[in-house]
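Job type: complex structure
Entries:
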Amino acid sequence: MPRPDIRFCRLCGTPTEQRVPPGEDRERAVCPACGYVDYVNPTAVVGTVPVWGEDGGAVLLCLRAIEPRRGRWTLPAGFLEYGETLAADAERETREEAGARIELEGIYTVLDVVHAGQVHVFYRARLLDLDLDPGEETLEARVFPLAEIPWDELAFLTVRRTLECYLADRAAGIGFPVHTEAIPWVPRP
Amino acid sequence: MPRPDIRFCRLCGTPTEQRVPPGEDRERAVCPACGYVDYVNPTAVVGTVPVWGEDGGAVLLCLRAIEPRRGRWTLPAGFLEYGETLAADAERETREEAGARIELEGIYTVLDVVHAGQVHVFYRARLLDLDLDPGEETLEARVFPLAEIPWDELAFLTVRRTLECYLADRAAGIGFPVHTEAIPWVPRP
């Protein structure tokens, strides 16, 4: 997928050219001065499904204080930083956005969001207590009984899909296998 | 992790400044002219463990024709491209590097390679036939009985770890759960 907005070399500032580097099969922004190739790759967003109660019958959601999707509910999640592991990112985002202490369980959903150039990864997690302390990206952090999840006010399709998987797997009672799928692009009204 | 080599805005060519953007917690290369923030995120490398035989008793490896690790054996794998799903990347790399036709099975290992700013993901896969046709990144594609895997000539630690998981899980006979872990940095001799 082309990124026509990339027009200068990040390393030396020379205007880049769109061309196919040797041995490759697609156009990239290439620097004619220093040879730097500006690869554009999908980014990873990592979060958690923090559940509460012996039976995991309630889940923590955060009301977003920032765009995109301000005023909608999300699972805690955010961009994986260079130098960070997926698990560390999952815990950090849950702490930063909800002030929640969790015990990470297994990786749970791995979802391609092709139209956004992202991969969303959610871990299952267990809330250790109910002392929440939402950060500045969050208007409110609240633990919802599963029957009260605000399905029509969720922020992202990957959050919806991950919660759907959790409810279905929990109802089936056969554990929590990892789900991998691509999220179809749906235009917003 | 800082990237001091990023010194110019990719969008407008202005020299960037290292500073902490509003609402964030770490320094980024920020453009003082157009406001662009040059986020640096880990990249995903996706591949397969292509096995052969009813009992999955043999595995396809590729002898690398390119650096890094030219002349060492790897599982087929490569960088996830913008606009591509993880599964599509896994199949593409297997086709490009080995000329192999496969049926993808589940996601299998998800490995942080923090020191390289990468996440490596391997899917289990079944070879559909033995008609291999290695591409230009590969000197030779060969199906090894598991007892003959060239452990001392493998290209990457994530390849080694994924093969170790496969052999252990296959021996245990209780299926192939997803493995997630961080690969420790080991200096090369």
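Summary: Chain A touches chain B at residues 1, 3, 5-13, 15, 23, 26, 29, 38-44, 66, 79-87, 106-107, 110, 112, 114, 117, 119, 121, 136-137, 178, 180, 182 (CB under 8 Å). Chain A has two domains: 1-40, 43-182.
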